[in-house]
Amino acid sequence: MPPQLRRRFEVSVTSRTLIRASDPPPEFPAVLPVSNLDLILGSFNVSLILLYPAAGFPFPAVAAATRAALPSFLSRFFPFAGRVVADAATGIPEIACNNAGAELVLADAGDVALADVDFADADTSFGAIQLPYEQGVALSLQLVRFKCGGFSVSWGTNHLLVDGHGLTSLPNAWAELVRGELSWEPRHERRSLLRPRSPPRYGAALDAEFTRYSPANLVNPLLAAALVRRSYVVSAADLARLRAAASTPSRRATRLEALSAHVWKLLAAATATTTTPDPNCRLAWLVDGRRRLDPTKFNTYLGNVITYASKEAAVETIAASPLADVAAMAGAAIGEVFREERYQELVDWMEIHKTEAYGDGGGGKWTETVGIGTGSPAMVVSAFVAFKVDGDFGFGKPAVVMPWVRPGRLGSAAMTVARSPSEDGSWVVMARLWPRLADVIDADTEAVFKPATAERLGLVRRCKRGGDDVAAVARHASRL
């Protein structure tokens, strides 16, 4: 790898502006309560990073078009012009729809082109592009200029407002509105969709799935900091090969099941080589429940409709079993929670426990136990491959779409899997790994996970002479 691809780079903020909705919807509630499902994952910042290679448009035109379109976008997505606050009486977070304004952040990567960035090191690439923002901000829209015409757009929000479906809906809606008219209406009201039963009820096993997110229950910060972030590309050919190996005449595995089975085997191999090996290891998945619930209500709903599925198995069993058997285990674990009753139980569970976490100085929230990092080694897989992102708001489609989360003190391993916007069948993977697991992935003879170079991501473009063309800015702004 050429030396320049390993460089660290600094992104400097050139402006940070609050943009308000131009036409707030009449009679919109001043406070939008969140649902019990929103509280399952809780309040933390999440971003969706879109990378655009050089396409002949100067950055001032991109910034001008964004600034011009944002007020009308916020009028349709009004909660994102507000703030996440805590109810004064209960401490439970809610959304103040006060039109305080979304952040529009313009920034510059200096003399660094997207082709120069070592995307295999996620912390020094994606981590440098996505700029921190206050947790209360409902939308931080960040544009970063790169040398040679490339740029990034980061959609930063709070997980209370969106899950993966909702997060990827934002740039799609933005592109539709800029190009013409929105083909669907977002549903913002949330608590009436899944009401707790009276009295609330759930299976006793659900209690073990959650742990308080508080310092006493988390791995120490130095241990959490020991995890490394890597980005990979998995080609369509490798996915097809894994799927064929993971399928049988009686059962055709999905591509996610096939990749999960391969990851599970890598995790088992890493676990077996530790100084004090654990006999078991776990895989977990974030599962979107929309297909099991009423599509007329949930297809345009941006809030959280997700839950975890997890499965623990013996390391020896995972290592010795054919890929098809491990894929079937993954499919069975996901299928177990892919039912409407599961989501109703979650609503009821949170109804009983939310005050315990947020109220009376509770000092935290609930989180899924499997993500904490204690017990047998666990890998959490978050799949965005079902969500197609257009993202063309007048400057071409992005080459990369990748969610980004700063994990705090969670100590489990994690993989986020997203589809390539090129629609060539390849996937891009963001992974948080223990160094030993990263070594096992790098040494894998099947080489399924290939380092995410700028070339593999479709970000290599030739630099053009002359810099930004002022006349081109005016021409493009007039078309928008």
List keywords for this structure.
Chloramphenicol Acetyltransferase; 480 residues; 2 domains; 24% strand; 13 helices; seven-stranded mixed beta sheet; 18 strands; alpha+beta
> Rg to the nearest angstrom?
22 Å
- State the fourth-level CATH superfamily of the largest domain: Chloramphenicol acetyltransferase-like domain
Q: What is the helix content? A: 25-40%
> What is the overall pLDDT average?
92
Query: Class by helix and strand content?
Result: alpha+beta
The number of helical elements comes to: 13
CATH architecture of the largest domain: 2-Layer Sandwich
Q: Strands across the major sheet, in which order?
A: 12-11-14-16-17-10-18
- Report the sheet with the most strands, covering strand number, pairing sense and barrel closure: 7 strands, mixed
- CATH names the topology of the largest domain as Chloramphenicol Acetyltransferase
Strand percentage = 15-25%
Distance between the termini: 41 Å
Number of domains: 2
Q: Which CATH class of the largest domain is shown?
A: Alpha Beta
Number of strands: 18
- Mass-distribution shape: globular
- Enumerate the spans where pLDDT stays under 50 for 5 or more consecutive residues: 465-480
